[in-house]
Amino acid sequence: MAWSPDKTEVKSWNEWDTLRHVIVGRADDCHIPPEEPALDAKVPEDSDMRGQWGRRPQETIDRANELLDNFADQLRKRGVRVDRPVSIDHSQPVTTPDFHTDSQFGCMPPRDVLLTVGHEMLEATMSYRCRWFEYLNYRPLLKQYWEEDPRFRHEAAPKPRLTDADYHPDYLSEKIGDAQRLEWAAEKFFVTTEEEPLFDAADVLRFGKDLVVQHGFTTNLKGIEWLRRHFPDHRVHTVNFPGDPYPIHIDATFTPLRPGLIVNNPQRRLPEEQRGMFEKNGWEIVDAAQPAHNTPPPLCYSSTWLSMNVLVLDPKTVCVEKSEVYQAEQMDKLGMEVVEVELRDAYAFGGGLHCCTADVYRDGDCEDYFPKQ
């Protein structure tokens, strides 16, 4: 049965089939969270964000929302149904029997929290204390989908306790240095321990019957094993990228564009021993173009490699940030129609074009893109 804009249906099996329905985040009430173990490990040592926390300036929130609203309108004009989250009060502290933090984060990057696999949307555990309640921004939408789509499965992974036992104290030093970080990343020694399952949805890429999950700062091996047990009809593969001193979220490192083609961050290449699945099945992995910027925007957690954080609308069409001219040029050479989207001034609120969206419906069914395993 063909998709209809008048009928809600949750279904998305991969990152590239034609996008029909999507959630686009908001910058409302976004905060720089207080220091905590997961955050301290992520923020680069020379970042202007170290030592700062509190509500972001209203003029930057307004500018980010302007860009997000424009992006939503661009998608609507292309026939995509767009929903938006309802922001909670992110100034509220989070207190549990195990921890306290003085504020929360925001609701710009739904991709971090929500994982759509087929007819299911799964709320991730999250590994930051400040993001414990982030799923509440999306609950009104998930409630609506549940009421309107009888096949929709709304699931939530077990909430972790996030005690100090979840974090390696070695990462809490103010001056570790990138050389040490790269050595630890090569050894698969990350800030998160194996105390309990932890994963962010943005560490997962969907390839039909296969899920590819990054092991790093925000997702541990127990989290990947939890996903493996939760999706028993899928093959779940663990990957890591040793060239990244801050390995958080896979979508600025490894970006599938269509069946058979992936763009990979040239500074964080997939190790040879993990490329076999792709090579045996005829997939090409090409180095991404260089970013157009030498530094991230002010007060931004992310690296300049948000250049490759693109949103695929269908196997021939991709949204690329407007200023990322080298990435757009490469996409054109790879046979993709490029839709330019201005978003750079919203990067600091949670990421790029892939981060600020979450699939609700894409055409297509669950296919096996890797029959040779």
From TrEMBL:
Gene name of this polypeptide: strB1
Keywords: Transferase
InterPro entries found in the cross-reference section: AmidinoTrfase
EC number from the UniProt entry: 2.1.4.2
Active-site residue numbers: 200, 249, 355
Highest rank taxon of the organism: Bacteria
Gene3D superfamilies from the UniProt entry: L-arginine/glycine Amidinotransferase, Chain A (3.75.10.10)
Family: Belongs to the amidinotransferase family.
GO molecular function: glycine amidinotransferase activity; scyllo-inosamine-4-phosphate amidinotransferase activity
Name of the molecule in the record: Inosamine-phosphate amidinotransferase 1
BP term (GO), one: creatine biosynthetic process
Chain intervals for the UniProt region annotation (Disordered): 34-53
